[in-house]
Hints:
The protein has 119 residues and is an all-alpha fold. The protein is 81% helix and 0% strand. The longest helix has 17 residues.
Amino acid sequence: SATEVLGVAHVEQGEIDEAVAVFEALLATDPDSLSANTWLGQAYARSGDYEKAVPHLLRAAELAPDDPDIQYNTGAVLIQTGNVEDGIAAMERSVELRPDFPVARKNLAFAYLRVEKYA
């Protein structure tokens, strides 16, 4: 939709408050919108508000269990919130879905090291 395109443009321009308003309005009419949940989660993550990003990215991951990018992004944000085990699980799913996903493999390795360091 045109509204969604506007929200994406706001995210890409770093206009997080505007993007949040657009995607929250979209979710008010369709709480199961994959793109609105994904982009709202990304908007919050880009602003560093990982706690607010998590529920939207988890919902997106539920709605698109076969999307390696969504699984990876969810995992990365979960790790940022300190939920390393669930973050690793999401990243592992992303690599299973796309074995040639170098960024996911690299960050998954860092996550394994983080768990090992604190074990």
